[in-house]
Design a protein that fits this description.
single chain, 364 residues, alpha/beta, 5-stranded mixed sheet, 15 strands, globular
């Protein structure tokens, strides 16, 4: 099993194209064709984590937070980040990160938080924009089923909780085959009319090349006609945060105590309790204060995230309860997502969940 094969499983779950522009997810150290002996999954990479990988013979570390985030101008070992890079290279350890791309999938970091809280009717709080295309193609009537199926198998036609979505219209295509062609129907030099189906499917832009390849491989024509159109629609399957409902409403104090228990919190920062009932919950793993207005607009009773600044608590204005559970605390279960992705593909593959406490924040 090579590095690129293991990381492909992660990327099938959380496409690298979904990472934010400032991010640095992907393979950060090592060669893609290296044979993987064992994998260590973690939230952060520290020297202790690298030592753990060495001790257990893991030559691939998959982390949530990238070891290399900003550009390194020199690597002299003056800080922990540089020492980790040196040690990984010295011990031939590849390093891969899935950061904001796994934040931005519905069943990623925030989705895991929602599962732990047993939320129902969940949806993305702030869907991504301008990442959808519509493919339009024209297929001989008798071959439309095969072409549609190949497009669906490649990932086209996913709309919310529905798959295999397409729009189809019958019509007539015309063409004249030129010299040196081998037409599927019709004769060279003669105008031909063919009953065709116009097929329309929606797809995320990062699947364009894969879906086009499937179209060309399964379309019977030498020169199939097709168009890609950019869509301005939001994509409900990707974006920041999750909003959903509790099975039943609870009072604020009961909810906050449940939150402390589920996420193993020593302390929990929150806005003033107003005696409201909690039913609709919005949340975002990591640093999510930027979504507060979206949580309010969604009608949430509480918004759960990390890294709220002092003045940002005032922005709740008693419209919503803010529960700041901490950056690490909200993302702590991400390594279990990595573990599940890999073991689902290869149940007997050597994967370890890091036992190192990497949270740099401590409490008295």
């Amino acid at each position: 099993m090579k590095v690129t094969e293991v990381t492909k499983w992660i990327e099938e779950f959380a496409a690298p194209q979904l990472q934010e522009s400032y991010d640095n997810a992907g393979l950060l150290l090592g060669e893609p064709d290296t044979e993987v002996k064992a994998v260590l999954v973690t939230i952060d990479i520290t020297e202790a984590v690298v030592d753990e990988a060495i001790a257990y013979g893991c030559n691939l570390i998959i982390s949530h937070h990238p070891l290399i985030f900003k550009g390194l101008k020199r690597i002299t070992g003056k800080n922990e980040q540089e020492r980790c890079v040196i040690k990984c290279i010295r011990h031939h350890i590849a390093v891969y990160a899935a950061h904001t791309n796994i934040d931005n999938v519905k069943n990623g970091v925030s989705g895991r938080m929602a599962d732990l809280l047993e939320l129902t009717n969940t949806k993305v709080l702030k869907p991504v924009e301008n990442v959808l295309l519509k493919l339009v193609t024209y297929v001989p009537k008798l071959h439309a089923y095969r072409v549609r199926k190949s497009l669906f198998n490649a990932g086209a036609g996913q709309i919310g909780n529905y798959d295999s979505c397409s729009f189809n219209v019958e019509g007539t295509g015309t063409f004249k085959a030129g010299p040196e062609t081998n037409p599927f129907v019709g004769k060279i030099g003669e105008l031909h009319s063919e009953p065709e189906i116009r097929i329309e499917v929606v797809l995320p832009v990062y699947l364009k090349n894969r879906i086009l390849a499937e179209l060309l491989n399964n379309h019977p024509y030498e020169e199939p006609a097709y168009d890609f159109f950019e869509l301005k629609n939001d994509w409900s399957e990707a974006g920041a945060g999750i909003v959903g409902q509790l099975p039943s409403e609870v009072d604020e104090t009961e909810f906050l105590l449940k939150l402390k228990d589920i996420f193993n919190l020593k302390y929990l920062r929150h806005t003033e309790l107003c005696g409201r009932k909690i039913r609709k919950v919005a949340l975002c793993g990591g640093s999510g204060s930027f979504l507060l207005s979206d949580a309010i607009a969604a009608g949430a009773d509480v918004y759960i995230s990390g890294d709220f600044k002092y003045h940002e608590f005032f922005d709740a204005e008693n419209k919503i309860l803010i529960a700041d559970i901490g950056h690490f605390e909200s993302e702590q279960f991400t390594k279990h997502i990595f573990y599940e992705i890999i073991t689902k593909k290869m149940p007997k593959f050597a994967v370890r969940i890091s036992e190192i406490k990497t949270n740099p924040i401590n409490y008295l």
